[in-house]
Write a structure and sequence with these properties.
Elements: H1 5-20, H2 24-44, H3 47-80, H4 83-117, H5 124-153, E1 158-161, E2 166-169, H6 172-176, H7 179-210, H8 214-249, H9 251-258, E3 270-277, E4 282-289, H10 292-298, H11 308-334, H12 341-350, H13 354-358, H14 372-380, H15 386-416, H16 423-431, H17 435-449, E5 454-456, E6 460-461, H18 471-502, H19 508-517, H20 519-522
Antiparallel strand pairs: 1-2, 3-4, 5-6
Helix pairs in contact: 1-3, 1-18, 2-3, 2-5, 2-7, 3-4, 3-18, 4-5, 5-7, 7-8, 7-16, 7-17, 8-15, 11-12, 11-14, 15-17
Length: 536
């Protein structure tokens, strides 16, 4: 494949974004789990729960620091690698991004500091409040990022200003309560909860296999299994909601995910498995489940889901409509806005399709001069590469249902079998630790790759969004990012493994205070206090 600025910019951003998202889901989930554990500690006053809170909190802290560090890089990339995108939609995209920066770097970081350094400075209740504020702040920080990303998927609450040549916000309320953004938020944070639950379960299973920290591991599995089961169920339910919004707002993405080349009679079938062939416009050896796609995608029996071929024809019509808008726009710009009302009306009528005309910029400087062949090719460009989307979506969904089964099984053992875990299940618990990260990365791949060729769906093509950089600049910085992030990854894994092997800190002073407070309960029949009460 020929290297160009657009493809290298996409590769660099994809690498940094997907690396950053290695840390985000664990941060989201561990913050909640740690707050739950501290809540139990405050309610029961048992040292084991304080010990658990500190141990899992330490792992949360390591992960949090790396997540913040890699997130800063991404925010700079918007201005450095995607400067025209930042100029074109900065009025809308910049607002939630700025709020997220305030949430992450001021509010969230402040409470994280209080959490780690306030154990002996704050009362139990005050420290518990801090723990929950850390959890809420972490999740609330994710909300603003997903509002920004949701707007890129479904650009509402904004309109194009022909005089400034930029998109401008018309309703912050619509941007904030964008259905796509809200669905993405709840789906993404639930996936983070599953990630943390599997992580806690896997590490605890390793302790049980090693015969170390038995009580801490058992209690941690109990928390992880119950929280993880609820989260895994919610991921599936909320994923269904994301699919429903995609049916309305990103029809081409849905058709590509399904390998649906032609429009089917309603209700459409779901392709369980198959091998999409983009050149032949066919999904070979496909196994279909009747009605399922229609029910999931439209929640009805009579609504048609358009196929790729029909959507390409619609894109061609929108490109031709966008060319009319572009012609009117150039007239308005040339006359500095002093044009006849009919020109303005023509632009307003076709302005929603202006972005489709910009797809022609890949082939001709002036979209008004495009040939029929170039228009047809630009319409074909609206189809993303199908087979990666098709398989990424199915692997992600398969893992989602697997997490329900795994968490359900461990929840059953923890609740009804007195935490008697077969050794094979513990080995399995350790082995599946990477699985939720795979599912999460595939989910983001589907969301972002499926939006191509758009940076902002239907508004701004990716090919027009990049900065004026050279291939050499991008190759050098890409190599630098890969090297630097590889070093960070090694440091992250080294620290996590170090503290996992080391295990929880033995809080002797807190244990002694607990014994003193409950001395009358611990006395034996001969009046002696047990001399060695284990922290666990």
């Amino acid at each position: 494949m020929e290297l160009d600025v657009v493809e290298l910019s996409r590769l660099q951003f994809a690498m940094t974004a997907m690396y950053h998202f290695l840390f985000v889901p664990l941060t989201l989930g561990l913050s909640i789990i740690v707050a739950i554990m501290e809540t139990v500690y405050v309610m029961t006053d048992r040292p084991i729960w304080r010990q658990m809170t500190k141990f899992w909190g330490t792992l949360f802290g390591i992960n949090f620091v790396l997540g913040v560090a890699t997130g800063i890089t991404m925010e700079f990339q918007f201005g450095m690698n995607w400067s025209y995108y930042s100029h074109y939609v900065g009025d809308i995209f910049g607002a939630p991004l700025a709020i997220e920066g305030l949430m992450a770097f001021f509010l969230e970081a402040t409470f994280v500091g209080l959490f780690f350094f306030g154990w002996d400075k704050l009362s139990k209740v005050a420290h518990l409040v801090v723990a929950w504020l850390v959890a809420i702040g972490s999740n609330f920080s994710a909300l603003w990022i997903l509002i920004a990303n949701g707007w890129m998927q479904n650009p509402v609450g904004a309109e194009f200003n022909p005089m400034t040549m930029r998109m401008e916000m018309t309703s912050f309320y619509e941007v904030l309560f964008n259905t796509v953004a809200q669905a993405k938020f709840v789906h993404t944070v639930s996936a983070g909860y599953v990630t943390a639950s599997v992580f806690v379960l896997g590490v605890s299973a390793w302790y049980l296999l090693k015969g170390r920290h038995i009580e801490l591991a058992r209690r941690s599995i109990g928390i992880a299994a119950s929280f993880g089961l609820m989260s895994a169920l919610s991921v599936v339910v909320l994923g269904d909601e994301s699919g429903y919004t995609t049916t309305h707002d990103q029809k081409m993405k849905l058709a590509a995910m399904e390998g649906m080349w032609e429009t089917e009679p309603a209700p459409a079938s779901f392709t369980l498995i198959g091998f999409p062939d983009q050149e032949a416009r066919d999904t070979k050896y496909a196994i279909h489940i009747p009605w399922v796609m229609g029910l999931i995608g439209t929640r009805s029996l009579d609504t048609v889901i358009p196929g790729i071929a029909q959507l390409v024809d619609e894109s061609e019509d929108r490109i031709r409509s966008g060319m009319i808008a572009y012609d009117a726009l150039m007239t308005i710009r040339a006359d500095r806005g002093e044009v006849a009302q009919d020109i303005r009306d023509r632009f307003e009528t076709h302005s929603d399709d202006l972005g489709y005309a910009l797809l022609l910029k890949r082939y001709v400087d002036d979209p008004r001069e495009a040939t029929d062949e170039q228009i047809a090719q630009a319409a074909e460009d609206t189809v993303p590469t199908v087979w990666p989307l098709f398989w990424a979506f199915r692997i992600m969904v398969g893992l989602g249902f697997a997490f329900i089964a795994v968490m359900g099984y461990f929840f059953y053992l923890a609740s009804f079998k007195r935490m008697q875990f077969p050794r094979w299940s513990l080995y399995f618990g350790v082995a599946i630790i990477p699985a939720p990260w795979i599912a999460a990365e595939l989910g983001w791949f589907v969301a972002e790759f499926g939006r191509q060729p758009w940076t902002v769906d239907g508004v701004l093509p990716t090919a027009l969004s990049v900065s004026h950089l050279s291939v050499g600049d991008l190759l050098i910085t890409l190599a630098g990012f890969v090297t630097f992030y590889s070093i960070l990854f090694i440091i992250e894994m080294g620290l996590m493994l170090k503290y996992i092997r080391k295990g929880p800190f033995q809080d002797v002073e807190e244990t002694d205070r607990w014994i003193a407070r409950h001395e009358h309960r611990l006395r034996t029949h001969d009046g002696n206090v047990p001399g060695a009460v284990p922290a666990e």
